[in-house]
Design goal:
By secondary structure, the chain is of the alpha/beta class. About 35% of the residues lie in helices and about 20% in strands. Strands 1, 2, 3, 4, 5, 6, 7, 8, 9 and 10 form a 10-stranded mixed beta sheet that branches. α6 links the parallel β6 and β7. α6 packs across α13.
């Protein structure tokens, strides 16, 4: 979902700069032989899992897990495509529905249908004829608001896309660059889904006229520009509206000490776009056997129930439970905007080009 731990300091789908690339941890020199005792996961910066859960997989499978974090989701996907003939790892995690077609069209993955695939909730499945990717998690990209700001100013927070262009919310919203950031792109796609091919540009003209601010990525938007963040290292910004995730309010509770009784931030539910993240076995992976075992592991109930408090996303496995903090502070949107991956594939690049010309110039 592309991209931060959807938590606070590195939170919500890793939007940092590309890290220094480490050498692949596999000692296997024969492509596809599956003899290596190491399985290497390539991911965006937001990958996180409990140590005991990874240790249990390593003990059960006999494979050691190495993780290579490679920037935000868009950066990581592009790097994986460029290195697909000699990939840095065996499994890639973190390509979402906004970037899925780019990965598939460039032959990033080879087919594999993991165990328990039949337990994936139907609405999150994709590429079912070829099984090149496996849904792992889902979340909603939404506008978050700073409750204190709106209470202090005796102003109702916005509830919808339509509200954001009203005069009372002028100069209050910060969002991310749609050409470089997963939540920024998701927000753009949400407006395209809401207003259609003919209406989204007109909406953005009004949003620009109403003082929307655009920054490079989520980290800057949430931790530096947003007035409601508790996780930023720098002084808080002055914008009480930010494009983030529906799971950001529970993150604010979980990572604040002492924990507040209520979340200091809220979600404008009429601004949400549903994001799904996938994993796949990389084409030309050196350890295909280990990669398949790891993909199986990503769908186990233990991993799926471990995910929410580590990456602040929702499981896709039927029957997997979410922690009470999610139920109380970060429920999924009841009616989020969605878009068929095929339509995203057909229009994404042109939409981003038009958005860039319209909003940034």
């Amino acid at each position: 979902m592309s991209n931060n731990k959807k938590r606070l300091t590195a939170v919500v789908v890793g939007l940092g700069l590309v890290g220094t690339l480490a050498a692949c941890g596999s000692s296997d020199s024969g492509q596809g032989s599956g003899d290596s005792k190491t399985v290497t996961l390539v991911s965006h910066d937001s990958w996180a899992a409990s140590k005991d859960v990874i240790a249990a997989f390593e003990k059960q499978s006999g494979y050691k897990v190495d993780v290579l974090k490679d920037g935000d989701a868009g950066q990581a996907v592009n790097k994986a495509i460029l290195t697909k003939d000699n990939p840095q790892g065996d499994v890639f995690f973190g390509v979402d529905n906004t970037l899925l077609s780019r990965a598939l069209d460039n032959g990033l993955f080879q087919p594999y249908e993991p165990k328990d695939s039949d337990l994936i909730l139907p609405e999150y499945r994709a590429d079912q004829d070829k099984h090149r990717v496996t849904p792992v998690d889902t979340g909603d990209i939404c506008v978050n608001y700073d409750k204190k700001y709106f209470a202090d100013h005796k102003l109702e927070p916005p509830k919808s896309f339509d509200d954001l262009i009203k005069p009372q919310y002028k100069n209050l919203l910060v969002t991310e660059n749609a050409s470089a950031s997963s939540p920024g792109l998701g927000f753009l796609l949400g407006t395209a889904a809401k207003y259609g091919d003919e209406g989204w540009e007109s909406y953005w003209k009004k949003l620009k006229a109403n003082g929307v601010k655009v920054v490079d990525g989520w980290e800057q938007a949430y931790n530096e520009e947003f007035s409601g963040s508790a996780g930023g290292k720098k002084a808080k910004g002055d914008r009480p509206l930010v494009v983030s995730y529906a799971s950001s309010p529970p993150a604010e509770v979980v990572f604040t000490d002492p924990k507040p009784s209520t979340a200091p931030t809220g979600v404008a539910e009429g601004t949400c776009f549903r994001q799904v993240e996938y994993a796949g076995l990389l084409s030309n992976a050196k350890n295909t056997k280990g990669g398949k075992a790891f993909l199986d592991f990503l769908l186990t109930q233990r991993f799926q129930e471990d995910m929410p408090m580590n990456m602040f996303v929702y499981p896709v496995r039927e029957g997997a439970q979410v922690p009470p903090e999610f139920v109380k502070y970060g429920p999924q949107a009841k009616d989020p905007e969605t878009m068929d991956p095929a339509k995203i594939a057909d229009h994404r690049d042109q939409w981003v080009k038009s958005w860039t010309s319209l909003v940034l110039k």
